[in-house]
Queue: 2 jobs
Job 1
Amino acid sequence: MTSVDPQLELKNVTKRFGGVAAVDDVTFAIGKGEILGVIGPNGAGKTTLLNCISGVYRLDGGDVRWQGESIAGLAPFRVARLGIGRTFQIVKPFTSMTVRENVVAGALFGSDEDRPRLGAAFGRADGVLELVGLRSKADLPVSAMTIPDRKRLEVARAVATRPKLLLLDEVMAGLNPVEIDDALEMVRAVHQSGVTVVLIEHVMRVIVGVCARVVVLDVGRMLADGPPDVVLRDERVIQAYLGERYARRLRGS
Amino acid sequence: MIGMPASRIWNRVFTALAMAVLAYAVLAPLSSLDALQSLGMPLLTDKLWFRLATITAMFVVMASAWNIIGGLTGYAAFGNVAFFGIGAYTVGMLITKARWPFLLALPLAPAAAAVFAVLIGLPLLRLRGHYFAVASLGVGVAVGELVQNVDFRGEPLFGGASGLFLPILAVPNRDLYFFYLMLAAAAVSIGVTWAVLRSRFGYGLIAIRENEEAAAVIGVNTTAYKVAAFALAATLTGLAGGVFAQWNVFVDQENSFPIGYNVEMILMALLGGTGTVFGPAAGAVVLQLLIQFLSGSLPITLQIPFVPDDAMPVLAQVVLGVLLMLVVVFAPRGVIDFFGGRSTLSIAYLRRSLRETSV
């Protein structure tokens, strides 16, 4: 399933906490311009995998390669400067700043390429706010924002860092169906602006809607890698999500 | 600018008031110039005025400098007095031992403090919250003790317990000279804060204060930024120490490393509003006047029944402690909160609740 031009390659990535392998020997690659879904039940190691890529955790084994070069062991800020942006599942806004200032902070740092000066950063920020649909709320303090809007802001700040690859950690979690549709629209817009996207999600529906390819994790191991309609019919995936008994019943019917 | 605007009317009243006081403070000393005196200009200042104004300017520097690491970066440094002492002793040593002229020695005071800040910042700034506060306090105390007690070939290296006596600087209008020198340091401190808040560097520091992990993943080199902020605070504080040494003519552990300064500079920044440009300076002026008033150094003194005069300095410390508690509990962002209505004790909050409850 790997495309011709792999941008990010994970090779036997392993991360242990004590005796438990939270991510165990995971290998796959992401092609430039792809939009990849990473799904799995609670505790599957999705966020740990993301932390391994963005430099928050050090690997216990394996390698992460970005455009052909190893980035394993780099500090998070160095990974960001190479053009890999990320969001946090539990949003981490800069609360004393306004919405616009949060995004300006993202624009001022991030990728080493094309770093704007302070004045230009404000212009860039407004463009990003437009893209994620927060333009009208630019001058609000973060404290006045709803949860869906805070998730949008989290994405906006990451997009402002001019990433080539954006890792989105459960940006739909805790949203209602209508809000999820809005958020999906935003993710599509970001992807269409030319960014490779990795979408980590718990909710299946989300992935099926936007991703052409899905990677499934369960207790740290990779279960499946393929188009959503194939992967979601995979018996091991059904078992992991719904339990063995349900899988057997499904087989029986 | 990053931060919330306070209530507009109050803003204007206070700006006008502050400008008037500032204009007086900056211009009044000129009346002591011989040329103006001979023209019959009344003397607007005296020895006491100069002493008070110079000390106040010195605290403006220290509170503004603390604001850069404590207010903007969010690292509660409790040992900044070490930078003051290092600045003072750098000038003291260069003048007494190496016979350098004052103006040549002065630039090395901030430089020495900055180098020291980088050296201790690299390990200490890995600590967060209370751990950093306690560790920095430890450094502040330790440096003072070392300076007093380090011997070299049986002789105290830095003057020991008897301190260093500097020759009096031969300049006309010495009081005026040191007042303007300290005032310039204060202006530089405020200017630096202003510039930092309008720069990439400032955005990085505030991002670190708000959420260090999020700052790192948007690409802020958090270690470098924290150490730079610490060194910048040390530079300004060291400059104040350097000017102090020559102004005071005598430096020892007690006057160069007073632990109380740590509390005072933080309280000033908190009182005025951390993270703002003018807050710490305003806090320094108000609190320094209060300290001098309570300790009986001002012409107007306070008489409290049953409290003997010599107990007043102690009372000043008690008042500072109580004030610190009140500020932290009711207006954690400083008086800015008080006028912006974000504290439940604030004037704006009171007005708002009166309006909302009236029928």
Job 2
Amino acid sequence: MSDSIDQYLSQDYQAGFVTNVDSETLAPGLNEDTVRFISAKKGEPEWLLEWRLKALAAWKTMKEPEWAHVHYPEIDFQAISYYSSPKSLEDRPKSLDEVDPELLATYEKLGIPLHERAALAGVAVDVVFDSVSVTTTYREKLKEVGIIFMPISEAVHEHPELVKKYMGSVVPQRDNYYAALNSAVFSDGSFVYIPKGVRCPMELSTYFRINEANTGQFERTLIIADEGSHVSYLEGCTAPMRDENQLHAAVVELVAMDNAEIKYSTVQNWYPGDKEGRGGIYNFVTKRGICHTRAKISWTQVETGSAVTWKYPSCILKGDYSIGEFYSVALTNNYQQADTGTKMIHLGKHTKSTIISKGISAGKSQGSYRGLVKMNPGAYGARNYTQCDSLLIGDQCGAHTFPYIESKNPSAVVEHEATTSKVSDDQLFLCQQRGIDAEKAVSMIVNGFCKEVFKELPMEFAVEAGKLLEVSLEGSVG
Amino acid sequence: MLKISNLKARVEEKDILKGLDLDIKAGEVHAIMGPNGAGKSTLGYVLSGREGYEVTEGSMVMDGQDLSELSTEDRAKAGLFLAFQYPVEIPGVSNMEFLKASVDAVREYRGQDALDPMSFMKLAREKSKAVNLDQNFLKRGVNEGFSGGEKKRNELMQMMLLEPKVAILDETDSGLDIDALQVVAEGVNKLRSPDRAIIVVTHYQRLLDYIVPDYVHVLADGKIVKSGGKELALELEEKGYSWLEGEAK
């Protein structure tokens, strides 16, 4: 086995590389050796390597899903490199002067603090950021109440019993093609454990981890809220993030024990490609949570980035009286494509779910809502309410709705409402005639359209999200 | 205040205005009457610079400023106001937010300081009271679910807030019962001022009983074919428009 590792390493050291910089990239391709290499690199225990290998074996037997309403060139999974340590300082831009001015202009508009701009744009800076010390301070504070918040790669060593017990318990290795891929090769991600009865004193945010180790393209997150605990977790940030890796396949698993509550908010703003649709991230995400008795999981997402989005944050409402919520704003512009929605699987009695989905399509983009509400035979008195609205800007984009409803319990109630509207010329003219320019008018209309979802976001995120939509829609009118 | 000379304009390749002249001084109220399809609404859209309305010849000058050099929103900021015949709804955008964005834009253009939210709210409440609209309407979506009369009063409130130099009221009477008409007319009359010109576009004479114009013009086939004092409106009421249409040829 070690032979194969050496082989990989020798293949990939590139000329001119400074050897003391820990910066190798694995040769493209995916097989057992790749997985062994990754696991060895991370110094993982044997059980995790076995776990990964099992996932790989499953993945090999699976087919890439084709049912989503998105089109992209075929992905050659053997042409991708599955391990790359943080980029060497030499490969990265030396200063902000070397960064795409358009990206900088966007940071400016979003009001991103200067020192964070450099980090986001991938500039090689060797000063210690404020956020690092912030992270450390927070970790200490969290430790006091017994909360564990750390990279999952560390948790594997420090809390193997928890990771072993829960990883794959909500999204099994063979759940779907991308989940299996992620399970085999996942890079890093967050691990959170909230002890019984503890209310997390602050919003936990990946943002604080911004300049910690690159979490990479196969992120894996596991959040466990023990009985009666409460946590709010924020993922992503409003600043557009560049990444060299075009394919992203993340897995997020949430476990809400009896009476626990998890609120998971996402702002996804990966590079969407340019105005002609070139480049951009393919984002295939599996997010799912399980709710035990009287537990509650609430997903809130603002999706504006990526060239292709395939994402269905879901809830398994296993415990009686448990609650699942999904609030989503998905905005597509230019040539972006998004197929996103949720699955609410009602197993327990009197379980309740709410789905509010707002899709905004502009330019030549295509936005789809795809949702499943499933009432199992045991879901006595369960209820679902779904509201699914689409807003079109211009006449070259598309909005699609694919609601699936399966009800096997006659006492369950499922409600579905859907609307499609268009930002009309009359509305724009009214605004302009009152002195409001077209872009501001569209932004006001879009923000109004998304109000119900924004109010679910943590306060500071909500303000940023509004601004983000405005920036994302630039050039969509006039 | 507003001088329109030999204005020709087209919409979708169709000539609608065919050499229109108008000269309106500050403090005056002019009524423009005419049969359906004469180009009455088009005039308002052309003046305010709506997309798709193309000026092919002539000029429009407001207070010394050539309107065709300004964008749609800049014309509004410079003091041109169009009250719509059928005000459109903008669901989700609160009336208050809309009014604030509008007033902010206009004040900035005119070199005035932006109003802080508290003073603005106070001002908006005052104006909504002046047009007899309940304050709840400020919280609702722009025109969302408003009755015909409420929409027109909302337009009037916007006009009060923006204090335009030239206001064009496009068929303000349409869709209003007589009581609502009186309320709106009363509001317009309050807005008559020595430094403001008002154009009342209407099909019927009825509105002019309440908003008494200084001059009346008849617009037919894209031109002003007859002008006169307020008594012209009565004559039109009696005889209809057909006797004038020949003059447009």
